[in-house]
Design a protein that fits this description.
about 260 residues, 7-stranded mixed sheet, 3-stranded antiparallel sheet, 10 strands, globular
Length: about 260
């Protein structure tokens, strides 16, 4: 980690000026500098650019969606086009739940069209995360340290350093919908892959709708050897997904760790 504070002082830039110029919260920035809170990747990248420092590897491989669109013409980690059902297509079901949710933070259409989404429940769950503060982004799971299994892109080739669309909640998690794993010669596609910033661990997310085969799910869980967070359709249509996810994460790594 770069000594941000040392470089800032050498440049004779006040913390308040850097916060204003980088459009960051002054108190949060102070906590990041003093090591009281973990640097969010985007904030760290912004400050490194501001001070003329090279970005850390993690910050290079995680882009806000706006930054991804701005740089996709030149960086070599562009997204593969999504050919299956997408969030944009699945967002029109469960109208009663959407009416109650009254979403005001829905990502732009071009992001929704880039996210594979196999059910309306998934779309409703991701919408709840957006309302709870998650933002659209693009990142490389491999570059961010996912190593248990090989990842495959929508065309069936190795993902490599290619990015995937994801939901990014600063200081909390990155969630990658519908990422395909290659395990012992077989392909597995959980509903989402989650990187928890608090613990540094990767988890799987499964939404148990009506089409789930519990016996198959159990066999797959035994093969994958990754912790699985499972959520019911009732919890999602009841708009409890964001809080239930927080509860699941806290059960693994309590707040403050």
């Amino acid at each position: 980690m770069f000594e941000i504070r040392q470089h800032r002082l050498l440049r004779r830039v006040s913390l308040r000026k850097m916060a204003q110029d980088c459009d960051l919260d002054f108190r949060s920035l102070s906590a990041y500098e003093l090591g009281k809170r973990q640097w969010p990747l985007q904030a760290l990248a912004t400050v490194c650019d501001y001070l003329g420092l090279p970005r850390p590897v993690d910050a290079v491989y995680c882009f806000s969606w706006t930054e991804h669109l701005r740089s996709q013409q030149w960086h070599r980690w562009s997204l593969e086009p999504e050919t299956a059902s997408t969030w944009a297509q699945q967002r029109h079901t469960y109208s009663a739940s959407y009416k109650e949710l009254s979403p005001k933070r829905t990502p732009p259409l071009h992001f929704l069209e880039a996210v594979r989404c196999d059910s309306g429940l998934e779309a409703l769950a991701w919408s709840q995360l957006c309302e709870a503060g998650a933002r659209p982004a693009a990142a490389s799971p491999v570059a961010l340290g996912f190593a248990p299994y090989a990842l495959v892109d929508p065309r069936g080739f190795g993902l490599g350093l290619k990015q995937r669309p994801c939901l990014w909640h600063e200081d909390e998690y990155l969630l990658f919908p519908q990422v395909t794993l290659l395990v012992q010669g077989r392909l597995y596609r959980p509903d989402a892959l989650l990187l928890d910033f608090r613990s540094g661990c990767w988890h799987l997310i499964e939404i148990d709708g009506g089409g789930h085969n519990s016996e198959y799910d159990l066999q797959r869980d035994l093969v994958l050897h990754l912790r699985v967070f499972r959520f019911t359709s009732g919890g999602i249509t009841g708009l409890r997904f964001a809080s239930d996810l927080q509860t699941s994460r806290s059960s693994v790594c309590p707040p403050g760790r």
